[in-house]
Amino acid sequence: MKRKPLVGILMGSDSDLPVMEKAAAVLDEMGVPFEIDISSAHRLPEKTAEYAKSARGRGIEVIIAGAGMAAHLAGVIASHTTLPVIGVPLASGALNGVDALYATVQMPPGIPVATVAVDGGKNAAYLACSILSIKFPEIGDMLEAQREETRMQLLEKSKKLQAKVREGQ
């Protein structure tokens, strides 16, 4: 039996899918159920507003929204819900994501959007997991295990590098 989604992933267009799939992969790895869809703030404003307004009632607890260029998707969603919204500015257009970063991070008081790096789909998912870990300790346990695994891999790489350096001296 499939559990109800806890995270909603939205993107402005299908061209955003490669970055947003990275968020989906992290959520899969952490065992966090999610849903994913396309919903443009400018081309599908009614769908976007309805998604945001209905999310809490459908069991969604965090929304990840990725968009490029004008990147109003996360802000529009945040204006229609009090759920945590994580914005992922996407590299596109003449400014290669800087415009999307500014549009996502510069929200007016009272309508916050947590913003990750340009093309930061993975970190958006990790942040969503951190938020969810407040209510679901097992997600926090998964995060801690993932961080420990990363630490161990880095220590192993460091040992190999140091051995290689010693051999070359």
Tell me what you see in this structure.
By secondary structure, this protein is an alpha/beta fold. It contains 6 helices and 5 strands. It folds into 2 domains: 7-132, Rossmann fold (3-Layer(aba) Sandwich); 138-169. Strands 2-1-3-4-5 form a 5-stranded parallel beta sheet, sandwiched between helices. Helix 1 (17-30) links the parallel strand 1 (7-11) and strand 2 (34-38). The model has no long low-confidence stretch (mean pLDDT 96).
| CATH level 1 name of the largest domain | Alpha Beta
Largest sheet: 5 strands, parallel
Average pLDDT? 96
Percentage of residues in strands: 5-15%
Sheet/helix structural class: alpha/beta
Tell me the strand order in the biggest sheet: 2-1-3-4-5
Number of helices: 6
Which radius of gyration do the C-alpha atoms yield?
A: 18 Å
Percentage of residues in helical conformation:
40-55%
Low-confidence residue ranges: none
Notable traits:
lyase; 50% helix; Rossmann fold; 2 domains; 6 helices; 5 strands; 5-stranded parallel beta sheet; globular; 169 residues; PurE_dom; alpha/beta
Quick summary:
Residues 5-154 form the PurE domain. The protein has 169 residues and is an alpha/beta fold.
In terms of topology, how is this protein built?
Blueprint: E1 7-11, H1 17-30, E2 34-38, H2 45-55, E3 62-68, H3 73-79, E4 85-90, H4 98-105, E5 114-115, H5 121-132, H6 137-168
Parallel strand pairs: 1-2, 1-3, 3-4, 4-5
